[in-house]
Specification:
It is a single chain. It contains 13 helices and 17 strands. The relative contact order is 0.14. A hairpin with a 5-residue loop joins strand 9 and strand 10. It folds into two domains: 105 residues, Glutamine synthetase, N-terminal domain (Ubiquitin-like (UB roll)), CATH 3.10.20.70; 322 residues, Creatine Kinase, Chain A, domain 2 (2-Layer Sandwich), CATH 3.30.590.10. It is of the alpha+beta class. The strands form two sheets. Strands 7, 8, 9, 10, 11, 12, 13, 14, 15, 16 and 17 form an eleven-stranded mixed beta sheet that branches. Strands 1, 2, 3, 4, 5 and 6 form a six-stranded mixed beta sheet that branches. It starts with 14 loop residues before the first helix and ends with a helix. The longest helix is centred in the middle third of the chain and has 21 residues. Helix 6 packs antiparallel against helix 9, helix 7 runs antiparallel to helix 9 and helix 7 packs across helix 10.
């Protein structure tokens, strides 16, 4: 194909391109969504028509730089180099092409944000994770990871008193109760099929603690794929609900008096085919030491919203203290027991939820853990009790987004890893969200997080 005058060629010919074009034709795909995650944690994007797909796979779709300075209320923040002047391209990764089973006629690809000349843009979050993976590989390591998301299923209804819409949960069944399987059965079967169709292998499902709360976990994958999977997971959970006249939210705390929704991050560190988190491993302990050393700052990226800190409280099984321990579900870092002889040891980071940008979240975790390995940081003694039962003994995690952002600004390693443009934009966006919700009542906060995530 001859490029039209002025077109910018971004990608080199890719073996996946012909397959994508043929599949789009055969499956009647009309619109292909090019998706990315912004600094607010929102999945955004644009869509190419099938008739222009071949060209857009090469050029990407034009996009204003300002969108990476937008918060979750669609309020644009003043960030240098992210104003009305400037252009990036939403450039899809052909290897991520998936038809969307809950949206007939549509497909999606996860995308990078690049400059018009094709070079990486310093504010692209997917590139941040790619760079972290490359840094890890320089030491001969790679990560397998999976987010473990919870979400609340119900219906979005007008408030009789005239306030913001309310989320009315699907049921009021008990935690893990067998009746909970039945009330959500039709939805969960459709969700499982939709995830599997997109290549996200479902591991297990159960009704969770809060009214309408669900958990469906997927198998681990290499780091970039794991973050891509989480974007697709979030979109699928909500998309399947909407197609069935329901509403699903992965917001950390959509109902103030009920259980929160986490997205605990499970990960293991590998060298070739050897899991470095085996029991008694010094490397595992050093990695934990890095996580704990940077954990106050990490929470600004792994728990990326005002609403997140309603969930992170003592005795909520969500972690409120910067401690670790074997199978301690009140510890920020849990050493998980392998399942059976074939199970692989892994760590679970509990202060993590779906309001975070998964590329920034996982990338920052990699940088923190790698710092621990390189400096051989001692994590101290594991904690085998609920840390809240010994007041004042263990370090408390930040209790607000502002506290977490203060810790992030003071963390030289993570600030350096983020780089000048990305960190200035992220801090501006998140500070603005903190200020905006502080000026409103809790109902306003709960509604907007339920609506967005």
């Amino acid at each position: 194909m001859r490029d039209r005058p002025g077109a910018t060629k971004i990608n080199k010919p890719d073996p996946d391109v012909r397959r994508i074009l043929e599949r789009a034709e055969l499956e009647g795909i009309e619109l292909i969504r090019f998706l990315y995650a912004d600094h607010g944690g929102v999945t955004r994007g644009k869509a190419a028509s099938r008739s222009r797909l071949a060209e857009r796979l090469g050029t990407g779709i034009g996009h204003t730089v300002a969108m990476m300075a937008m918060n979750i209320l669609d309020q644009l923040q003043e960030v240098e180099e992210m104003g009305p002047v400037g252009e990036v391209r939403i450039v899809p990764d052909p290897a991520t092409f998936v038809p969307l089973p809950y949206a007939p006629g549509a497909a999606a690809m996860l995308s990078d944000l690049r400059l018009p000349d094709g070079s990486p843009w310093a504010a692209c979050s997917r590139t941040f994770l790619k760079d972290a993976v490359a840094e890890l590989a320089s030491d001969g390591h790679h990560i397998l990871a999976a987010f473990e998301p919870e979400f609340t299923l119900g219906r979005r209804l007008p408030d009789p008193a005239g306030g913001p819409d309310r989320l009315v949960p699907l049921d009021d069944t008990l935690c893990y109760a067998a009746t909970g399987f039945d009330t959500a059965h039709d939805y969960t079967i459709k969700l499982m099929h939709a995830l599997e169709t997109q290549g996200l292998r479902v591991e297990h499902y159960h009704p969770e603690l809060g009214p309408g709360q669900q958990e469906m976990s997927i198998r681990p994958a290499p780091a970039l794929r794991a973050a891509d999977n989480h974007v697709l997971y979030r979109e699928t959970v909500r998309g399947v609900a909407l197609r069935n006249q329901m509403w699903a939210t992965l917001a950390p705390k959509p109902l103030a008096d009920q259980a929160g929704n986490g997205a605990h991050l499970h990960l293991s560190l590998w060298s070739d085919t050897r899991n470095l988190f085996a029991e008694g491993s010094e490397v595992r302990d050093w990695f934990i030491g890095g996580l704990l050393a940077h954990l106050p700052a990490l929470t600004a990226l792994t728990c990326g919203s005002v609403n997140s800190f309603r969930r992170l409280g003592p005795r909520l099984w969500s972690s409120a203290y910067a401690v670790y321990g074997p199978d301690n579900r009140e510890a920020a870092v849990r050493i998980c027991s392998p399942l059976g002889e074939s199970g692989e040891p892994n760590l679970e980071l509990k202060p993590s939820d779906s309001s975070a940008n998964p590329y920034l979240s996982l990338g920052a975790v990699i940088h923190a853990g790698l710092d621990g390995v390189r400096r051989r940081l001692d994590p101290g003694e594991p904690v085998g009790i609920d840390p809240d039962t010994v007041p004042g003994r263990y370090p408390r995690l930040p209790s607000s987004l502002d506290q977490a952002l203060d810790a992030l600004e003071a963390d030289e390693l993570l600030m350096e890893a983020l780089g000048p443009l990305r960190r200035s934009a992220y801090l501006a966006v998140k500070r603005s969200e903190s200020a905006a919700f502080a000026a409103k009542d809790p109902a306003y906060e709960l509604f907007h997080h339920m609506r967005v995530f």
